[in-house]
Amino acid sequence: MENALLIGLSRQTTLRNQLDVVANNIANINTTGYKSQSILFEEYLMPVAEASDFQGQDKTLSYVVDYKSIYDQGQGAFTQTGNPLDVAIGGEGFFVVETDDGEAYTRNGAFHLNNDGQLVTADGKPVLGDGGPLQFSPEDGAISIADDGTVSTELGEKGKLRLVRFENSEDLDRIGENLFQGEDAEPVLKPRLTQGSIERSNVQGVVEVTRMI
Fold this sequence. Notes:
By secondary structure, the chain is an alpha+beta fold. It has helices spanning about 1-25, 205-210; strands spanning about 35-50, 60-70, 80, 85-90, 95-100, 100-105, 110-115, 120, 130, 130-135, 145, 150-155, 155-160, 165, 175, 180, 185, 195, 195-200. Helix 1 packs antiparallel against helix 2 (about 205-210).
């Protein structure tokens, strides 16, 4: 009897964790560049708990465990904003930003200039180009971002936005503030950027509500 209750409890625990993930997805349905999360489940055979008190063949009891969370890196829809510093990525790739713990990666291209004229994320983290953070002055004038990430002003070229990819982007670690960290980043050879647009969350509200129900 105790084993049966523990089996049920293992399932309820994983369902509670799944509900937390679903709630977080729904809460970020309007977050720019957000990628929906899901949990993977597997069977866990308890090595020391057996149904040996009953007639018939002994069986190793089967529990449920949520062993991994992954992220759907599918592209979200684009929304035009008209802001020349907003950039959306078409296809694969992540922007590279500078944090206190090293480089991090995001699909959120809602950028702006801080008080020092540096291109930063919505949270104020520097956006990195091939030569480091991108710096502007009032004399630069209008800022243009080409499809390949080249950043130019009225005074000439300022640099190129760094875009990287990962072999298994679903396994990246989310560190908060819509940022990921991972290893073995590779440059995107043929980036496709759209200036004046942002990528919306790829969360499908109907799907998440269905999961919650």
